[in-house]
Write a structure and sequence with these properties.
The chain is an alpha/beta fold. It has 13 helices and 15 strands. It has a 7-stranded mixed β-sheet, with helices on both faces. Helix 8 links the parallel strand 7 and strand 8. It is globular and about 60 Å long.
């Protein structure tokens, strides 16, 4: 195991204060419009505080954060070095327009470029992951003079105009527009193979053949880019089979297509490497990032750009920008985050906890529960596929289930929370995505709670 980060021990939650919690919730319900929600059907938890791998509410309930919020608090909550960096930057220079050279902005870009694969040495900063995808697609279209972009069905790339159309999951449906120039295809996923493959080699070969055929029928000369999450996140943490990403790289090179890797969720230690691409030895032309670059302490994302694409804009302006591109407070938090991750061996900790604790623990849990069809992942980036029947692999709930149809997953999530674990639940899966700073003891604590909570899902299987 890597040395555990010194800040990871949690501080006990404050003395319960239900009256304040009720006031916070009342104000939220009166004025806050929540994303991805039917406003009248939600009941947001009022949060009183957080530290390390835990957060707590005003009633004194403490939760082990197995979601890292939205899989972004990679260094945990309230890391003191990052908090101090934000405070110091605010006292020195709160904000400055992106057209100026600012020391902390330059240093953040340098630290990111130092860790990206290949020649991705120019960094365009955005406010988050969706904007990073928007600009990566714009750069690809300008570079190639083409319009179409290919992405997989099992994907999520953001909620802005182009990003939501690139997204493959049902959140896209309400915003689908035929003019977006997006074509979806099937990526590899052996457990639910659309190619009737029986092993990873077949899945890889058939997935690449499917992609090549899709390109042929769409017209290679019309395709600007292929965008892939290096390891798809919200869609199910499906680690690509060996050779797949290299095969996509070769196809892109063959047809002059820009290869974009979306590392918004998988980047900055989440998979046990600085970037998930490092597992596969593949360098894209553009790489998007956000979330873990500063654990979301201040909104920040960006695009790492290859030399060839950056050169397009040496003598002509890039037609895009943001008021808060490279915001000093955000960049200060990124500098402090990246330095803390390096100094405290946080990436190595994520790799070790995944290999030695989470992976083996989940595989043992799978043997004990009728509802667990598969576990898969890397680092602190794991998915547990829940099924009604292990033999047929029928999902525990239907695709995109809601209301009564989703009750089995709702029962499971409620059991997790009663046990003091905050889960990440999507469709028929729970994702085990704690902070990269999680300790061995915390990981074991979370797995024990998860193990017990899965009994609630077992009750909905065909063997119950």
């Amino acid at each position: 195991m890597a040395a555990q980060p010194a800040h990871s021990a949690p501080t006990p939650g404050p003395t319960p204060d239900p009256a304040t919690g009720a006031a916070v919730k009342a104000a939220d319900r009166a004025h806050v419009f929540h994303s991805w929600s039917a406003q009248g059907l939600i009941d947001p938890l009022a949060v009183a505080g957080a530290e390390g791998s835990y957060f707590w509410d005003y009633d004194g309930n403490r939760y082990l954060d197995f979601s890292s919020q939205l899989v972004n608090t990679n260094i945990g909550h309230q890391h003191p070095k990052v908090v101090a960096a934000i405070q110091e930057q605010a006292a020195r220079l709160c904000t400055f327009a992106p057209g100026f050279a600012v020391d902390v902005r330059s240093e953040a870009a340098r630290l990111v470029a130092e860790r990206t694969p290949g020649d991705l040495d120019k960094i365009f900063f955005t406010n988050g992951g969706a904007e990073a995808v928007e600009h990566a697609v714009r750069m690809a279209r300008l570079h190639t003079g083409r319009t179409k972009v290919l992405s997989t069905y099992r994907s999520y790339h953001g909620a802005t105009a182009a990003a939501i159309n690139l997204t493959g999951d049902p959140r896209r449906w309400a915003s689908d527009t035929a003019s977006a120039g997006v074509v979806h295809f099937w990526g590899p996923f052996l457990y639910r193979s659309p190619f009737h493959a029986t092993d990873e080699r077949q899945e890889c070969e058939r997935a690449l053949a499917h992609l090549a055929e899709t390109i042929a029928f769409e017209g290679p000369q019309s395709i600007a880019a292929i965008i892939l999450e290096t390891v798809p996140g919200t869609a199910g943490i499906m680690v690509p089979p060996p050779g797949y990403l290299a095969g996509v790289r070769e196809i892109c090179d063959r047809y002059g297509i820009v290869f974009i890797l979306d590392e918004v969720m998988a980047g900055f230690g989440r998979t046990g490497h600085w970037f998930a691409a490092d597992h596969f030895g593949v360098t894209p032309d553009l790489l998007t990032f956000a979330k873990g670059v500063n654990s979301g302490y201040v909104p920040l994302g960006g695009v790492a750009i290859s030399a060839a694409i950056a050169a397009d804009f040496d003598q002509r302006p890039y037609p895009g920008g943001l008021t808060y591109s490279g915001h000093p407070l955000a960049c200060a938090s990124a500098v402090a985050t990246i330095n803390a991750m390096a100094e405290e061996d946080i990436v190595a900790n994520a790799a070790a906890v995944g290999e030695e604790i989470i992976g083996p623990g989940l595989r043992e849990i799978a043997e004990r529960h009728a509802c667990v069809g598969e576990v898969r992942g890397l680092g602190v980036f794991w998915a547990v596929e829940l099924v009604k029947d292990k033999a047929t692999r029928e999902p525990l709930v239907p695709y995109n289930a809601s209301g009564p149809a989703n009750q089995p997953m709702a029962d499971f999530a409620a059991a997790c929370k009663r046990g003091g674990l905050w889960p990440f639940v999507n469709m028929n899966r729970t994702h085990v995505v704690p902070p990269c700073t999680i300790t061995e003891a915390e990981a074991k604590e979370g797995l024990a709670i998860l193990d017990e909570a899965l009994s609630a899902a077992d009750a909905h299987t065909t063997t119950a």
